[in-house]
């Protein structure tokens, strides 16, 4: 199959890159966007993590699910050696992920983690109201979510899982071999493989030519650019500044997470310039929001109403209103209209106040204190989410 940048002439593509957030990303990063490298990347639309897929076939498809999970957990926590009598695919995966790549820089990982932590609630606003909901505008990217019936599972559970993954991969030493973030990366990699193989087996209408392979490497790259480039852009919009080391650190951190997840190294950007150039090419194969996108976006918006963390209905309605304000502030108006985000009165009030408070807070409070406070906030929000999703009502 030969892929072309089929939407490069479309209104949604041009608006984004010539007038919207895409234009801001180019200015923010100094990127030089063109289609000269398109062929280099296009093949990854039909490329998947075969190592992960083999592990699922050799471990999960042969045993009961809980037995297979226990076996994998044992490998994650205790490690695997050349002489172990275990399935070849598992040996290959763990020998590869237990060996730290030559390019890995521990100082940069630390800076990346610190930026995530010190961003506090802004980090969570960015992930939810820019990265996640903005991603729903790319119709083909969402097809695996629809195929695996993520909508039935509900946004509370999905948000809880994303938060759990993000918090646990962005703390100090989280990605050391056998540590919590490392464990999350390996498990997420195998969940992707499991989902991909299940889609290929059970979902008859999968349109490989247009949608690519389910959870393909190129889509994975775009998702991880969401956690680095888009995340940084969002923090900046909310009035945060970051040092050169922190900026390099965030790309380095997600490059390493991507490596553990089996994303090919040539797809993992080192800096914002590369990330914007890579992202530009990928967006040219994605159509704008469709019906599924709107359903996913509304499921996320209404999560605040369904979520029992806040006790009273008026609190939940207010939280939903604040998220809608942030979504309009962070995303292009065209994207919000396509996703049918409700228009609300005085929608710039909260984000602009937040921006002003951030500028003052970041001037007056030491970096160390901000890291500690932000980390505490993240752990508190995560604890609340895990408490309610452990309830059987949220399956």
From TrEMBL:
Superkingdom of this protein's organism: Bacteria
Domain annotation ER-bound oxygenase mpaB/mpaB'/Rubber oxygenase catalytic: ranges: 151-345
InterPro entries: Lcp-like (IPR037473), MPAB/Lcp_cat_dom (IPR018713)
Record-level Gene Ontology MF annotations: oxidoreductase activity
PANTHER family for this protein: ER-BOUND OXYGENASE MPAB_MPAB'_RUBBER OXYGENASE CATALYTIC DOMAIN-CONTAINING PROTEIN, SECRETED PROTEIN-RELATED
Name of the protein described by the UniProt record: ER-bound oxygenase mpaB/mpaB'/Rubber oxygenase catalytic domain-containing protein
Organism listed in the record: Chryseobacterium populi
Lineage: Bacteria, Pseudomonadati, Bacteroidota, Flavobacteriia, Flavobacteriales
